[in-house]
């Protein structure tokens, strides 16, 4: 009997447009959220996910058939997809929402990714995404997606090794006090930790090539997903300004100051 042919891997990488990590966050005048009229870029953890997908293809050579990036966001989020394409992704999907629409919550994102995965004719063997986005820091999407699909999950990954023939992956996870190595069957959800890799810079030729790579567009309605928020933000406020300290000449003065402040020894 001839051995059955090894199925080539199809990798999906969700990415998010977020406020650039170097920008100082400020609350908007209405106190309903943050001032978004600032520089945006790809969420750093998602950038690590794109890099890892490319490195997997470099390690496995011809065993990876495609790397597809997907984002949910306003028209400007196309720039984030172009970055992923310039780094090495083959194609992309843009689920476009209005500029004024709030960022969809993790469950809505997970349901969107579930629907996109169902629509892939060649299937999806591996989903790699950031463990969290730096704007809301919720860190839920990967776990929710694994639950919806009934797939194994390996979160907070610092190392990923894929065995295509065995259709499994060995993932080292970041845990308190060290690392945990787990073995998972494909298809698999992996969320990336900072120690997984250092993303590459896209070269100018690849940036130019990215403009010609395909971008498939959907609306939430096309996918049958409701992005109505389940939670209401009542108010966003900056923390109170820290009061400056003072200097004392000796211990006696320090004790006196503490007594004045109503602080006494236990």
TrEMBL record:
Predominant location category: mitochondrion
Record-level GO cellular component terms: mitochondrial matrix
CDD domains (alphabetical): ETF_beta
Alphabetical keyword list: Electron transport, Mitochondrion, Transport
SMART domains: ETF
GO biological process entries: amino acid catabolic process; fatty acid beta-oxidation using acyl-CoA dehydrogenase
Note on how the cofactor is bound: Binds 1 AMP per subunit. Binds 1 FAD per dimer.
Domain of life: Eukaryota
Pfam family of the protein (one): ETF
UniProt cross-references to InterPro entries, sorted A to Z: ET-Flavoprotein_bsu_CS (IPR000049), ETF_a/b_N (IPR014730), ETF_b (IPR012255), ETF_beta_N (IPR033948), Rossmann-like_a/b/a_fold (IPR014729)
Compartment annotation: Mitochondrion matrix
GO MF annotation list: electron transfer activity
Domain Electron transfer flavoprotein alpha/beta-subunit N-terminal residue range list: 31-227
Cofactor: AMP; FAD
Function comment: The electron transfer flavoprotein serves as a specific electron acceptor for several dehydrogenases, including five acyl-CoA dehydrogenases, glutaryl-CoA and sarcosine dehydrogenase. It transfers the electrons to the main mitochondrial respiratory chain via ETF-ubiquinone oxidoreductase (ETF dehydrogenase).
Similarity-based family: Belongs to the ETF beta-subunit/FixA family.
Assembly and binders: Heterodimer of an alpha and a beta subunit.
Official protein name in the record: Probable electron transfer flavoprotein subunit beta
Gene coding for it: ETFB
